[in-house]
Design brief:
The chain is mainly alpha-helical. Helices cover 66% and strands 4% of the residues.
Length: 278
């Protein structure tokens, strides 16, 4: 369900591409330090967005450098490090753990079970640092699993549960910006869930898996789905624009106004059979 909150790479300037990549590499580096090498396999660009958002809002002191790594052993790549990069690394570990656990329970993938075991060994440390967020993730995943077993026919219910999860993750601390970040996270979570349901509609139908649109008896309807998504993202960006962001605002704008639509547009374009432009 993750991997949708990404930038439209070609629309970023060269400087923005380097900055975006440095944050991503910084998170990857911190995952290795705070968890394990294996945990880096679950790294998602969604967490780069999380780090950039909080960095732009709170403007922490940063350190950085250039290093080669096992993924890029020849060319040294820039990285940055600060408390929000480290926070994003911990959230990535927690989310990846529960995602692997869910995959194992649903599909009995041996690889998911192995990675969940590796990630789970470091999860207590993440819980100690961020108990509120980890409790919210565990609670939301459990509730989503229950709704799937019940074949819940109302997309708003599971989308709202995932919205609550994202609301807690975006809310780094209880301060002046907590409510706005929570509102933004809730809308973003709904968008991600509904987008994932639309993109996976055909696959879920083939495999007999839960999909809220299938459960409500809805036929494939990209036009209607897009209405849901536009509304959710509109609420997300409304909260986003209330935040006093300057640093990296161009990258964040790119992600929310362009990048998040890439997977949807690609899938909709492949599936459209009415000749409309998507």
């Amino acid at each position: 369900m993750f991997g949708y909150v990404t930038a439209s790479w070609k629309e970023l300037s060269k400087q923005e591409q380097e900055r975006y990549g440095a944050v991503y590499c910084g998170i990857c580096r911190r995952i290795r330090c705070q968890s394990s090498q294996a945990a880096r396999l679950g790294l998602s660009y969604d967490m780069a967005f999380l780090a950039l958002l909080l960095m732009s809002l709170y403007e922490p002191e940063e350190t950085g450098g250039k290093n080669a790594c096992w993924l890029h052993p020849v060319t040294k790549r820039p990285w940055v490090d600060n408390r929000f990069v480290r926070y994003a690394a911990d959230m990535n570990t927690a989310l990846a753990y529960y995602n692997c656990l869910d995959d194992w329970q649903d599909d009995h993938k041996a690889s998911s079970r192995l990675l969940a075991k590796l990630l789970g060994s470091r999860l207590p440390e993440v819980r100690d640092r961020y108990p509120r967020q980890c409790e919210a993730i565990a609670r939301s995943v459990e509730r989503l699993s229950q709704l799937e077993k019940e074949n819940c026919p109302n997309p708003d219910e599971p989308a709202g549960v995932f919205g609550e999860l994202m609301a807690q993750i975006l809310t780094y601390q209880q301060d002046l910006w907590a409510l706005t970040l929570a509102q933004m996270g809730f809308a973003l979570g709904r968008f991600i869930y509904l987008l994932d349901a639309a993109v996976d509609y055909d696959k879920d139908k083939r495999q007999g898996k839960y999909n809220p649109f299938l459960a409500m008896g809805m036929e494939k309807d990209w036009t209607r789905w897009e209405e849901y998504l536009v509304l959710a993202m509109g609420r997300c960006t409304d909260s986003f624009e209330r935040l006093p962001l300057v640093q990296d605002k161009g990258i964040l704008d790119n992600i929310l106004y362009s990048g998040v639509w890439l997977n949807y547009r690609r899938k909709a374009g492949e599936s459209a059979d009415d000749g409309r432009s998507v």
